Amino acid sequence: MSAPAHSLQLSSTGRTRVRRLPERARSERDDLYAVLDAGKVCHLGVIIDGSPVVLPTGYGRRGDTLYLHGSSANRAIRAAAGQDVCVTVTLLDGLVCARSVFHHSMNYRSAVVFATARMVTDEAERLEGLHAVTEQLIPGRWAAARPPTKKELAKTSVLAVPLAEASVKVRNGPPADDEEDLGLPVWAGVVPAELTFGPPQADRLVDPAMAVPDHIRALTGPR
Amino acid sequence: MSAPAHSLQLSSTGRTRVRRLPERARSERDDLYAVLDAGKVCHLGVIIDGSPVVLPTGYGRRGDTLYLHGSSANRAIRAAAGQDVCVTVTLLDGLVCARSVFHHSMNYRSAVVFATARMVTDEAERLEGLHAVTEQLIPGRWAAARPPTKKELAKTSVLAVPLAEASVKVRNGPPADDEEDLGLPVWAGVVPAELTFGPPQADRLVDPAMAVPDHIRALTGPR
Q1: Does B174 contact A203 at a Cβ distance shorter than 8 Å?
Q2: What average pLDDT does this structure show over B201-222?
Q3: Which of A91, A216, A217, B91 sits a CA distance of 20 to 30 A from A23?
Q4: DSSP B184
Q5: Do A195 and B102 touch (CB under 8 A)?
Q6: Could you give all domains of chain A from N- to C-terminal order, each with its CATH number?
Q7: Which of the residues B100, B114, B146, B223 would you substitute to probe the A interface, choosing the one with the greatest number of A C-beta atoms within 10 Å?
Q8: Contact B191 A216 (CB under 8 A)
Q9: pTM over 0.80
């Protein structure tokens, strides 16, 4: 039953075993960037009133900082400021069907980031953070849409999460059945999984003569 | 820029506003079940050494209990036993492209469950939990694969998370632009997103004459 993921060189099963980025080889940092850059949604973990709270939210990366944003009224974002947080990005790549129930698993890539979050107050950095979040959602979108006004910015909180401690886990490949099970008459293999985007649906007030822009068309099809 | 999701009747922005299931109408409980039953991966939040840790893992539901499992050596599963946890399931349904940067958002469904987790020790319930996890991953799979041995069961921890407190959030529909932006020459709309499964890839040791079973074929295509 799904042992923990097979560990590649970056693997870590808990905070005690995470590695600090400055000590990492460039290739390992690139693996972390690759997972973070491929996602759309992260899960922010923060402690509120002594209990863990895990909420999904958009994010973006700029260098060695993740930016998250939310309404100024967003309780989790506000609670995270100055506190230890955990930000996790998970990409499901496949369902791993073994001959035994025990060896069923998933192929996936995940990045788990531990940091003290910082509420961004500098206006230039706040804009950079929002730019990163928007571009992560839809690359090329920032330049195409109306920029935020001061009033809109005042309603938005931007949280910075430094990529100081992180671990990356990857499981890929076929099932890892026990040798004595290989002859069982049970189909085994992998069912690939991915997040896909369908044909863009224009808002009803969009002029039907307006072409779907390239940065929207680029999303369609498998990622 | 993605205000928080538009709230349907179940919405809750934080633990203070979650509702207790016994007080809910049946339709609300069904909404919770629908989100949980549609996912493959949950994010488990637990406090370890005073800091939040968020890890992706498989899960399954049986009635009003979520079951999670992991290796007996899994630190997060062990740390969760008897402790407050948060289990979140998020389904991304679309990218919402507004005319203004500010109103960009995502369509999604999410369920956030707060509970005190319980390590399952009863052998019959442990098997039920593993059955639920396996069937969530691939419906119909449990009966097709070799059942777990006592030795394998001894290596597996099963965690029960009661659906006592939970909130469901759903955002769907078109962008919610400000009226004064509707005339801007900016394409706006929704790009639908979904997790899709590709053609099954048989393990190299599977007899080429063996047909792909129906429960595997049923996964292929959009969910």
Answers
A1: yes
A2: 91
A3: A91
A4: S
A5: no
A6: 15-196 (2.30.110.10)
A7: B146
A8: yes
A9: yes
